[in-house]
Amino acid sequence: MSRTAGNTFGNVTTYEQNGRQYIAVLSGVGGWAGIGLAAGLTDPTAGLGAVGGYAALSNYTALGGTLTVFALPQGAN
Rg for the chain (alpha carbons), in Å? Predict the structure, then answer.
C-alpha cells in the first residue's frame, strides 16, 4: 500500500500517458489546520478559532505540499 506525505487536500486528478492511467493528489497542510500558516494570521480567534487551535503546528511542519502520483495496474482502466 502506498501512502501520501500527509493529509490529502484539493481535487484528485487522473490522466493517461502512453496507454497507462495515473492518479495524482496533493498532500500536506491544508484546510482549517493550515489557514494560519497560509495567511500569516496570528490572532488566535481568526479562522473561527483554528489559528489558536493549531498555533503549535508551525513547530512541526511548514507550508508546501507533495504531489503524489500513483500508476494504476495495467488493464485496470
Answer: 16
CA distance 51 to 17: 41
Q: Cell 493550515 appears where?
A: 34
Q: Cβ contacts of residue 11 below 8 Å, gap of 6+?
A: none
Give SS3 for 71: strand
pLDDT per position as a tens digit, 18-70:
999 999 988 877 777 777 877 788 899 988 888 888 888 778 776 777 888 99
- CA neighbours closer than 13 Å in the CB half-sphere of residue 10: 16
Question: What are the two backbone dihedrals, phi and then psi, of residue 45, each rounded to the nearest 5 degrees?
Answer: -90, -5
What pLDDT shows up at residue 2? 56
pTM score, whole prediction: 0.58
